[in-house]
Design brief:
single chain; mainly beta; UDP N-Acetylglucosamine Acyltransferase, domain 1; 13-stranded mixed beta sheet; eleven-stranded parallel beta sheet; 36 strands
Length: 256
């Protein structure tokens, strides 16, 4: 199959398209864009100037990729969610388009769903999955294999390391740090009820150590520190340090 460009698409003469690329109706491909082999850009999608799409990437309908972005091989942008027959939380019918802010980098094999809004200068690591209607602030990092569930919010300059799970409805502030494989939860009923979901709130400058678990509805205050492996079942006061199972306050040592 050869490259196919719909007659209504607008492709800059300076854009470079690989082999077997499909460009849908009314799609816009900006100047200096480089698109790898076997990519699909669906109807009404927009790729900003000087952005790059790796081989096999899919940009779903109406998705907007900003200026100077890098989307690595086999990423999927703007995926529409589906509900299973037993899903307790049904997906909506209408979503805003996915927007990827200028100068952002999307890793290989990532999936980012429709309705999500990524600000400028964001890095999303390989194999990450970001569900619908999430918001991520400027210059934040979402590490390799991170799973972010629907309607979670993340502030600016926050770092989420490898394999962490950000539950749906979580609210995470600015400059928060998550170590690897942190787990957050939003359901105290273990699936028995869908009307009581409450993600945790993690305020600005908090730090969460690797393999910590944050239970539903917990608030972790500004500049608080959760030690590695802790299980947080109650609110943590601003500036406090907690550790253990369940997590309890301890004296924070001064930096050496």
């Amino acid at each position: 199959m050869c490259t196919s460009i719909d007659s209504t698409a607008r492709v800059s003469p300076s854009a470079k398209l690989g082999q077997n690329v499909i460009v849908g109706a009314r799609a816009v491909i900006g100047s200096g864009v480089v698109i790898g082999n076997h990519c699909v850009i669906e109807d009404d999608a927009e790729i900003g100037d000087n952005s790059q799409l790796g081989h096999g990437s899919v940009v779903h309908s109406k998705t907007i990729v900003g200026l100077d972005c890098v989307v690595m091989d086999y990423a999927i942008l703007g995926r529409v969610p589906r509900s299973g027959a037993a899903s307790g939380r049904k997906v909506g019918a209408d979503y805003e388009p996915l927007r990827v802010g200028d100068r952002s980098i999307i890793g290989a094999l990532c999936t980012i769903y429709v309705g999500t809004q990524l600000a400028e200068d964001i890095l999303v690591g390989d194999l990450a999955s970001i569900r619908e209607d999430c918001t991520i602030g400027q210059a934040s990092i979402v590490g390799r294999g991170v799973l972010m569930e629907l309607e979670a919010t993340v502030g600016s300059r926050t770092v989420i390391q490898t394999g962490t799970h950000i539950t749906g409805d979580a609210h995470i502030g600015d400059r928060v740090f998550f170590g690897a494989h942190v787990v957050t939860m939003n359901d105290n009923t273990l699936g028995a009820r869908a009307d009581t979901l409450a993600g945790p709130t993690i305020e600005d400058d908090a730090k969460i150590g690797s393999n910590a678990t944050i239970l539903p509805g917990v608030r972790i205050g500004q500049d608080a520190l959760v030690a590695a492996g802790a299980v947080v079942t109650k609110n943590v006061e601003p500036g406090a340090t907690v550790m253990g199972v369940p997590a309890r306050p301890v004296q924070r040592e001064a930096p050496r």
